[in-house]
């Protein structure tokens, strides 16, 4: 059983938790979510999305969307990732999600250690924040489930890359598919798309 997550860093402020999904992928957008939870939100199953099964994440997404005061999910495209790099593309996607919230946050909690100011709203970066704060864990679940759904849809157009299973991450099958079929418009060209092992010519 994991430690119960903290509800707030600043209990008297409207806090939005932010997290992203898909930073380490070779293909597809990076997704980010921003979530404002009500003070009375209580959900012991909620944890860092990486610690949960797909079935648990789907169930939690429903609970989060039904109970959140406000939530939004946004993306940065592979083109934007190539242009500004994955770190700042992740931050840009978070800014887009924050801008779409129907309630303006008074404080922002960000998973990770890098961020850029969003307007004049104060923020705190929290390493492994998705396993410490409820709002960040909620954002991690939304970002992950929306991205997984998107990559599963893309799989229907490009079945060779097995995105329904690997979601764009650099698995052996994904790298071999790139070797055999080349890249698609959904691949991030600034990433090391070929496994070094595959580049050795025999």
Explain this structure.
With 202 residues, the chain is an alpha/beta fold. The chain is built from six helices and five strands. The protein has a single domain, classed as Ribonuclease H-like superfamily/Ribonuclease H (Nucleotidyltransferase, domain 5, 2-Layer Sandwich), CATH 3.30.420. It has helices at 54-67, 78-84, 86-100, 134-157, 163-166, 172-181, and strands spanning 15-21, 30-36, 70-76, 107-111, 123-126. The protein has a five-stranded mixed sheet with strand order 3-2-1-4-5. Mean pLDDT is 92; it is low at 197-202.
Q: What is the compact description of this entry?
A:
Helix content is 37%, strand content 15%. The chain contains 6 helices and 5 strands; from the N terminus they run ββαβααββααα.
């Amino acid at each position: 059983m994991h430690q119960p997550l903290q509800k707030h860093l600043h209990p008297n402020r409207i806090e939005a938790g932010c997290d992203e999904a898909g930073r380490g992928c070779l293909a597809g957008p990076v997704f980010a979510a921003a979530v404002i939870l009500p003070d009375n939100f209580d959900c012991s199953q909620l944890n860092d999305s990486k610690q949960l099964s797909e079935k648990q994440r789907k169930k939690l997404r429903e609970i989060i969307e039904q109970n959140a005061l406000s939530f939004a999910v946004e993306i940065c495209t592979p083109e934007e990732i190539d242009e500004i790099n994955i770190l700042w593309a992740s931050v840009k996607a978070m800014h887009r999600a924050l801008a779409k919230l129907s309630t303006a946050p008074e404080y922002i909690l960000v998973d990770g250690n890098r961020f850029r100011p969003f307007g004049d709203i104060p923020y705190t970066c929290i390493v492994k924040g998705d396993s410490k704060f409820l709002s960040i864990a909620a954002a991690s679940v939304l970002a992950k489930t929306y991205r997984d759904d998107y990559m599963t849809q893309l799989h229907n157009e490009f079945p060779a890359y097995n995105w329904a299973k690997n979601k764009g991450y650099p698995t052996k099958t994904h790298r071999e598919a790139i070797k055999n079929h080349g890249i698609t418009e959904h691949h991030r060209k600034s990433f090391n798309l070929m496994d070094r092992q595959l580049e050795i010519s025999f």
